[in-house]
Amino acid sequence: MGNRAVITRQSIKDTEYLFTALFEDHRMLEVSCSDVKKTSLLGNVYIGKIKRIIDKIGAAFVELFPGQMSYLSLKDVKTPMMARQCRQGKLTEEDEIVVQVVKEAAKTKDPTVSTNISFKGNALILTTENKTFGVSKKLPDEKRSYFQAFFEEKTAGQKEEEFGLIIRTNAKNYSKEQLSEEFCALYEQFRYLKTYYKTRVCHSCLYHSPPAYISDVRDYLSLHLEKIVTDDPAVFQELLQAFEQEKVVTEGRIELYGDALLSLSALYSFKSKLEEALSAHVWLKSGAYLVISPTEALTVIDVNSGRCIKGKQENFYLKVNLEAAEEIARQLRLRNISGICIVDFINLDTKEAQEKLAEAFKGFLAKDKVPAVFMGFTKLGLAEITRKKIKKPLWEQIDKRDFDI
Predict the structure, then answer these.
(1) For residues 329 and 335, what is the distance between their CA atoms, to the nearest angstrom?
(2) Which 3-state string (H, E, C) describes 52-93?
(3) Nearest CA to 128 among 42, 172, 203, 194?
(4) DSSP for residue 165
(5) How far apart are CA 181 and CA 193, in angstroms?
(6) Cα 69 from Cα 63, distance rounded (Å)
(7) Which of 358, 284, 346 is nearest to 321 (CA)?
(8) N or C terminus of the chain with fewer C-beta within 10 Å?
(9) Left, alpha or beta for 225 (phi > 0: left; psi -120 to 50: alpha)?
């Protein structure tokens, strides 16, 4: 059994959640959840009103709609779409500006918005301010020239500075005709926005992003999914429509699960796997264990030798640390840990062993679709990692104190 995406509903106390998980065999690699009664703002495009500008931190606070503020970094603003501007060429309070939500709200922090609007397809991403051509680093070099020619062909006759285009990893599975069709669809969304945003009133939502599970599955496509399984008929129909050109549809690999005797969540042991993903302790096969401690500013992970017994083999603790590093990289994805992460590995005797651990750790982190970077070891021997913040960590998406499926 290879990679599978599983989408299922679970009731937690009085709240019903929709879970999207990525499995390798029966091992959960990633999971996210959303309250079915709440709508996520992530990806939505609004005409917001600038309520406050703070020059000292280079930021503006933009009201998306009454009662919902957002944070906009001014250093990233290039050529914004202004629905209403008080002073030409300078952002001021009460200006009305088109923004897209790029990070969810976290704890006391408002959601983050950007003036660089992105329209995401399964193979392409069209951007309004980042007006360059980009290609996934995971694509082979021989594909780059092919996609460069494709981009030049599609932008022929259009203003060079009009938009940018990013080629996703999944583009390698698309024919030229399919790429052209998706490009045209994204370009139509872009042109509609550019044409009509000035006619809309402040606080209007100009674009609703697809459900979170669609975005999650779209990110999983490059992993050569063996199957996408759901027990929700409405979700099943949305998947068929969203990925009608993908091989997972044309080859019949999107499945509506309907076994009345064994639920989909029971088949994949969702309850126990979610409990493990919310636990502070993670046991390793060697008998060692991790302690994962999130704090307000960062996440601390401690590697303990636990029940593992030191043998006579050379580099014993290096082998334990390598096992821990691989599991830590998996836990970052599984729990969606982001921001700064500090890891206290078991002390190593030589610099050579530490370098081997660093190189292996970088390789494990490279498997993550969210940018995660190993920054190096501090003078105290602590490993520093940063991981881009996009969504809330799992423990904020669902409160483990209320975990009672």
Answers:
(1) 10
(2) EEEHHHCEEEEEEECCEEEEEEHHHCCCCCEEECCECCECCC
(3) 194
(4) E
(5) 19
(6) 4
(7) 346
(8) N
(9) beta
- From residue 195, give the alpha-carbon distance in Å to each of 64, 81, 200: 20, 11, 10
DSSP structure class, residue 108? T
Distance, in Å, from the CA atom of 47 to the CA atom of 114, rounded to the nearest integer, reads: 12
The SS3 assignment for 119 reads strand
Question: What is the structure's pLDDT at 157?
Answer: 60
Q: Three-class SS of residue 345? A: coil
Token pair listed for 378 = 């501090």
pLDDT of residue 405: 45
Contact 232, 18 (CB under 8 A): yes
Mean pLDDT of 245-261: 83
Of 1, 3, 6, 385, the closest CA to residue 228 belongs to 6
Residue type, 272: S
In terms of C-beta density within 10 A (0-12 exposed, 13-18 middle, 19 or more buried), how is residue 66 classed?
exposed
Centre a 10 Å sphere on the Cβ of residue 381 and count the other Cβ atoms it contains: 12
In 156-265, beta strands by DSSP E: 164-167, 205-207, 227-230, 254-256
Can you give the pLDDT at residue 313?
60
Using only the alpha carbons of the chain, give its radius of gyration: 23
Residues 363-373: tens digit of each pLDDT: 999 988 889 99
Q: Which of 54-63, 72-81, 94-103, 132-141 has the lowest mean pLDDT?
A: 132-141
How confident is the model over 36-76, as pLDDT tens digits? Answer: 888 889 999 999 999 999 999 999 999 999 999 999 999 98
The pLDDT value given to residue 367: 87
State the burial class of residue 154 (Cβ atoms within 10 Å of its Cβ: 0-12, 13-18, 19+): middle
Q: Are 177 and 184 in contact (CB under 8 A)?
A: no
DSSP 8-state secondary structure symbol assigned to residue 170: G
- Whether 23 and 269 have beta carbons less than 8 Å apart is answered as no
* SS3 at position 331: helix
CA atoms within 13 A on the CB side of 185: 14
Residue 87, beta-bridge partner list: 90
Largest Cα span, the chain: 75
Q: What is the mean pLDDT of residues 121-136?
A: 88
Q: Are 280 and 293 in contact (CB under 8 A)?
A: yes
